[in-house]
Amino acid sequence: MNIAYIRKTDKPIKEVAERLKEAFAKEKIEIVGERELPDQKGFLLYFLKPEWFAAVAEGDQNLLGLVPSVALIRRKEERTVIGIGNPQILAGGPNVDDIASTVEEMDRALRGAMQFASGAPEPKVEKVTLYSTKTCPYCRMEKDYLEKHKVAFDLVMVDEDRAAAEAMIRKSGQTGVPQTEVRFDDGESEIIMGFDRDRLNELLAIAA
User: Fold this and answer.
1) C-alpha dihedral over 11, 7, 47, 4, to 10 degrees?
2) Each residue of 64-120: pLDDT tens digit?
3) Does domain 125-204 fall into CATH 3.40.30.10?
4) Cα–Cα 20 to 30 A to 100, which of 1, 131, 199, 200?
5) CATH number of 4-118
């Protein structure tokens, strides 16, 4: 799973920051601080929604540090890049059922805000890669699921290809399978850990 959401745009940093503030205001997300990076190389926007912190603290206060609270807007390779923490990492906690609706709300709100701020078209899926092993039952389930819904994908057997296994671990930091890499036409990608039907449905436009 990606630690952060990343979007790219041709808009200047300050315009992106103002658009992000506007989107946050609509979601009742409070701006609590702003700071420029050294040499005017970017901009930090600190934000919070008290209800999110309250819900996570009620479920498991050890997860509070994972609640997204800062956006980084910077120039990279002549484009503006927006980065915000991925709230889906909270789903790995022990009391995920208690905060599932909050994580879903964070995901929707932050993705929507970044999309508005970038002003760029919604990225399109360019390539899907399923990392699997011969003995993994969930890998087989996901493979069958993707085939059933006619999703084109590359199947990589990491127990037969050491280089592929090492590449997978470099991308995700995880050794478990299945892992699904969804690559978009803007050059970014998202790693889905496990056979996560809901996330696959969302990213690959599969009708539930």
Assistant:
1) -160
2) 999 999 999 999 888 999 999 989 888 765 556 778 889 889 999 999 999 999 998
3) yes
4) 131
5) 3.30.310.70
